[in-house]
Design brief:
Elements (H helix, E strand, L loop, with lengths): L3 E3 L4 E3 L4 E4 L2 E4 L3 E4 L2 E4 L5 E6 L6 E4 L8 E4 L4 E4 L13 E6 L4 E4 L3 E3 L3 E5 L4 E6 L4 E3 L3 E3 L12 E4 L6 E4 L6 E4 L1 E4 L2 E4 L3 E4 L11 E4 L10 E5 L2 E4 L3 E6 L2 E6 L3 E3 L3 E5 L5 E5 L4 E3 L2 E3 L7 E5 L3 E4 L1 E3 L8 E6 L2 E4 L7 E2 L6 H4 E4 L12 E3 L12
Parallel strand pairs: 1-4, 2-5, 3-6, 4-7, 5-8, 7-9, 8-10, 9-11, 10-12, 11-14, 12-15, 13-16, 14-17, 15-18, 16-19, 18-21, 19-22, 20-23, 21-24, 22-25, 23-26, 24-27, 25-28, 26-29, 27-30, 28-31, 29-32, 30-33, 31-34, 32-35, 33-36, 34-37, 35-38, 36-39, 37-40, 38-41
Length: 381
C-alpha cells in the first residue's frame, strides 16, 4: 500500500505476512500497534512514520523481524519499539539508519538497547526527544547531526531527555566513538557512559544553552539528573551551561566535562548542584557557584576542577555553598594564581566555603594548584 493513515480511535495490526508501506504511516489520532511484520514498499527500503502536531500520537512496534533497511521519524510521532528488530534489519557495519526529520520521540516502555550499528541522524534544526519508563534505554549507537563534519561544526540540533518519563537514558557508544549534535537538554535522567559527546551549538541560556539541565521540585527527584560516568562531554562553543530547578550534574568514575570557553551557571534563578568525584574532571572558563539559593558545588575525593575563575554572578542575591571534600582545585593558567571571587563581592556573605562535615576547608581538604600541579595561592573566605 501507499500511505497508511490512522484517523480515529486506536488500531492494532497483526498477522503473519508482511505489511509493506510505500508512503508513510500517519498517526492522525489515538495510537496504532503493529504486532506483525512491517516492511518497506519503497525502492530504498525505508519505512516512514509521521503524525499531526499532537505529542501523544503513538506508534507501538512489536514485530521482531521487521525488514525495513532504515526508519524515518517525522513530525511529532511518538515511536515506541519493543525491541531492536522492530527498527528493521540490523546493518552489518555502523550506518545511518534512523533519521530524525521532524520533532519526534523515541520511547521505550522497558529495558531496551539500540544496536551499535544503527547510527541516528538528526536533521538540521530538528529536536529529538527520548525517554523510558524504568529502563535503562541504552543508545549503543552514535547520535549525530546532519552534515556535521566534526566536533567544531556549529549545528542547531537538539537531543532532549524528556520530562514525560523518569527512567534512565544512557549514551554508551563505546570507547573512541563520538556523538556530535548541537544541544543536550536533560529534563529527566541521562548518563554518558562511554565515548565523547560533542555539543556544537552556540550557547545561550535556558533551552538555548549548549547544555541545559532542568529539574523539578527537589534534589531527590528523578528529574534533571545528568551523570557523566566514564564518558566525556565536550562543548566547543562559548557562552553558557545552565542548571536550574534542582538540576544536577555528577561527574565521576573517570568521566570528563571539557568546556574550555564556558561560563557554568550553577543555579540559574533556582537551585542546582554540581558534584565532581572519583577521578571525575571538569574544565571550564568560569564556574559561577551560585545565582540562586541552594546552589551547591561539591568537590569530593578524587575530583578535579580546572578553571580560570571561581565566582558568583555580579547580580546574585543569594548565598551558595562550595563544599571542599578532598577534591583538587587547579588553575588553568600556569602563569598566575586561580582567580577566586574577582567580581567585587563580599564572598564571605554570598558563598559558604566549607567541608560537608563542617570542618575547615584548608589543608588536605582543598588543594589549590596551578596548571602544572604546583601549589598556588588560593584565598578562600
Amino acid at each position: 500500500m501507499n500511505d497508511l493513515t490512522i484517523k480515529s480511535a486506536d488500531y492494532s495490526f497483526s498477522g503473519n505476512g508482511p505489511l509493506a508501506v510505500a508512503g508513510a504511516i500517519n498517526v492522525k489520532a489515538g495510537t496504532v500497534s503493529f504486532r506483525g511484520v512491517l516492511a518497506s514498499g519503497r525502492a530504498d527500503g525505508s519505512l516512514h512514520f509521521s503524525a499531526d502536531n499532537n505529542f501523544w500520537r503513538i506508534a507501538y512496534i512489536y514485530g521482531t523481524a521487521n525488514t525495513q533497511t532504515s526508519t524515518y521519524l517525522e513530525n511529532t510521532v511518538l515511536f515506541a519499539p519493543s525491541n531492536d528488530r522492530a527498527l528493521g534489519t540490523v546493518p552489518a557495519t555502523p550506518t545511518d539508519n534512523i533519521f530524525i526529520t521532524g520533532t519526534p520521540t523515541l520511547f521505550a516502555s522497558a529495558n531496551f538497547t539500540i544496536n551499535s550499528n544503527r547510527t541516528i541522524k538528526i536533521s538540521s534544526g530538528k529536536y529529538f526527544n527520548t525517554g523510558v519508563n524504568g529502563g535503562p534505554f541504552t543508545y549503543k549507537c552514535r547520535v549525530v547531526a546532519e552534515n556535521s563534519p566534526g566536533r567544531n561544526f556549529s549545528t542547531n540540533t537538539y537531543l532532549n531527555a524528556s520530562a514525560n518519563w523518569t527512567g534512565l537514558v544512557v549514551l554508551d557508544p563505546g570507547a573512541g566513538v563520538t556523538n556530535a549534535f548541537g544541544r543536550l537538554q536533560v529534563n529527566s535522567q541521562l548518563k554518558v557512559a562511554s565515548g565523547v559527546t560533542y555539543l556544537t551549538g552556540p550557547g545561550g541560556t535556558g533551552t538555548s544553552a549548549s547544555l541545559y539541565v532542568n529539574g523539578k521540585t527537589d534534589f531527590g527527584s528523578s528529574y534533571g539528573n545528568l551523570t557523566v560516568d566514564g564518558g566525556e562531554v565536550y562543548v566547543s562553543q562559548s557562552l553558557y551551561v545552565d542548571l536550574r530547578n534542582y538540576g544536577q550534574v555528577t561527574v565521576t568514575n573517570g568521566g570528563k566535562l571539557y568546556m574550555p570557553n564556558v561560563h557554568w551557571l550553577n543555579g540559574h534563578g533556582s537551585p542546582a548542584r554540581l558534584t565532581i568525584a572519583d577521578r571525575g574532571e571538569v574544565t571550564l572558563s568560569n564556574l559561577r557557584i551560585t545565582q540562586a539559593s541552594k546552589a551547591e558545588v561539591l568537590l569530593n575525593e578524587g575530583g578535579l576542577l580546572k578553571t580560570f575563575v571561581l565566582s558568583v554572578d555580579p547580580n546574585a542575591t543569594f548565598k551558595g555553598t562550595f563544599l571542599f571534600n578532598g577534591g583538587r582545585l587547579q588553575s588553568r593558567d600556569g602563569r598566575r594564581a586561580l582567580s577566586v571571587f574577582p567580581e567585587g563581592h563580599d564572598a564571605r556573605r554570598e558563598v559558604m566555603v566549607r567541608r560537608q562535615d563542617g570542618g575547615s576547608p584548608y589543608g588536605r581538604v582543598a588543594t589549590c594548584c596551578d596548571r602544572n600541579g604546583a601549589r598556588t595561592q588560593c584565598a578562600l573566605p
